[in-house]
Amino acid sequence: MVSSPLHHDDIARVLDSVRDAQTGHSLLALTKLEGFRLEDGRLGVALAVAKEQAARLAPLCDEAKIALEKLPGVQSANVILTAHRPAGAGTPAEAATQGGRAAAPPPKAAAGGGHRPFGGPAPAPGTPVLPDVKAIIAVASGKGGVGKSTTATNLAIGLAQEGLRVGLMDADIHGPSLHRMLGTESKPEAREGRLQPMEVWGLRAVSIGMLVDEKQAMIWRGPMVMGAINQFLTDVDWGPLDVLVVDMPPGTGDAQLSLMQKVPLAGAVIVSTPQDIALIDARRGVTMFEKMNVPVLGLIENMSYFCCPNCGHNTELFGHGGARKEAEAMGVPFLGEVPLLADIRATGDAGAPIVASAPESEGAQAFRRIAQATAEALRHRNA
């Protein structure tokens, strides 16, 4: 750890603001921040980069030097590029875990490719990421068990019902569930080394759950997880999309940072339940996205109340209105609330999301209102 008045996020924010004019990628996305030291006003920043890219990135380092010298307590800055040896490529069989045992890293290196759990050649340096996708939004939560994946699935279908071309990407590598919620049983087709998304319920969708056995444990460390997310972004033929909805893993870790460094997010949607213990983690999620300069489109209160299927009486099992109050306190929009209904759970388990299979139901209407509010938030930010 570096003892310094500066935080890792301060350095990362500056590096993310320096962009390659040709590709639009930030210096943070093109390199890896290995460390920094601030001593007597002199700041040194070490960035790992593939050797063949060093010369091309030198001008960006000069821009970063000027920007870093504007940070509090920094009198002079120096950006050093260090050689980075990419990890092996491997094949899906080599990368995936078998019998509860993590596979060893493949021995061969893929030039410039980094970790590639699904194998295949790495994209050429400077290749645009998702050039035909107009907006990417992350559906996130500070903790698990709040219905994030159910929300992401029904939100994506709701956006498609608004007339948008929508993709749905499952970035929850350790706990993929979208394949089950969407009812997909076959594996995506590969054409010329590129994965074709599954077309279902008006979406184009990809999940690691479509590629591996459902009983297989994904015992992968951070670099493998980030490599899988990168391949979902670069090795999938998403085609022209208005919105790509990304179901993030719970928490604030490697997967979230990897996505934010790889592509510019149009915004993030935070899912929480009403009780205080869940809202604590939701605040962390909002703070993470704000630190990375990602707009928070709003909070969703899931399991807002329980509607008895027999008498129709509403019971606030986890409290009610907590997410709305939290959104107001943090100055972010409140997108809506979703009741705790057996039909939402049952349709998800059956692979027929409620927005598609029961569009007139109370649960589907709640998700449709949230989809409309999300679409409006995106239109407002793009105006």
TrEMBL record:
Biased composition (Low complexity): 89-103
Single GO MF descriptor: ATP binding
Domain of life: Bacteria
Residues annotated for ATP binding in this entry: G142, K143, G144, G145, V146, G147, K148, S149
Keyword Hydrolase: yes
Keywords for the protein's UniProt record, in alphabetical order: ATP-binding, Hydrolase, Iron, Iron-sulfur, Metal-binding, Nucleotide-binding
CDD domains to which the protein is assigned, alphabetical: Mrp_NBP35
One Pfam assignment: FeS_assembly_P
InterPro entries hit by this protein: FSCA_dom_sf, MIP18-like, Mrp-like_CS, Mrp/NBP35_ATP-bd, NUBPL-like, P-loop_NTPase, YlxH/NBP35
SUPFAM superfamilies per UniProt: Fe-S cluster assembly (FSCA) domain-like, P-loop containing nucleoside triphosphate hydrolases
Region annotation (Disordered) ranges: 89-125
Residues in MIP18 family-like domain copies: 9-79
Family membership noted in the UniProt record: Belongs to the Mrp/NBP35 ATP-binding proteins family.
Subunit structure: Homodimer.
Function: Binds and transfers iron-sulfur (Fe-S) clusters to target apoproteins. Can hydrolyze ATP.
PANTHER family from the UniProt entry: IRON-SULFUR PROTEIN NUBPL
The name this protein goes by in its record: Iron-sulfur cluster carrier protein
Species: Acetobacter farinalis
